Amino acid sequence: MADTAEAVKKTVEKTAAAATAQAEKVQAAGAQAFREGLDRTTASLSDLSAESKQNLDAVVAAAAAAQKGAETLSAQALSYGKTSWETGVAAAQSMAKVRSVQELIELQTSYTKSAMEVYLAEVTKATDVFTASVKDSFKPINERVTATVEKFQAAR
User: Fold this and answer.
1) Which pTM was predicted?
2) Which of 3, 5, 131, 144 has its CB surrounded by the most CB atoms within 10 Å?
């Protein structure tokens, strides 16, 4: 009976050792999988943070370009308004000194023609500035969208 008890004891010890070894392997594999998952998650969060920073930088650059365009348009409008006022006052003073209706009509026609030409030139300038401003404002955002699309296509 002692032999049987000794055999059972050895079998239990072998089984316990095998179970312990198997549990250690499972625990090590689980720990390794956890570490790999954590590393991938950390890398993904780092990539997401970098993408978010680049997106924010693009929005800031777009806002700066829009502000610069608005400042340019504002300065241009102010300059046109001042020049237009001064030209109008000068024309009114000239018209006040005329000696005939014919001379008044000629002065007014000349002033109106000149004022319309200057106005159309200003509108063209403002349109060019506005178009350039919009283009400059959307450029950083378009670049980010393009980069994101390329990244997604590369990941496919």
Assistant:
1) 0.66
2) 144
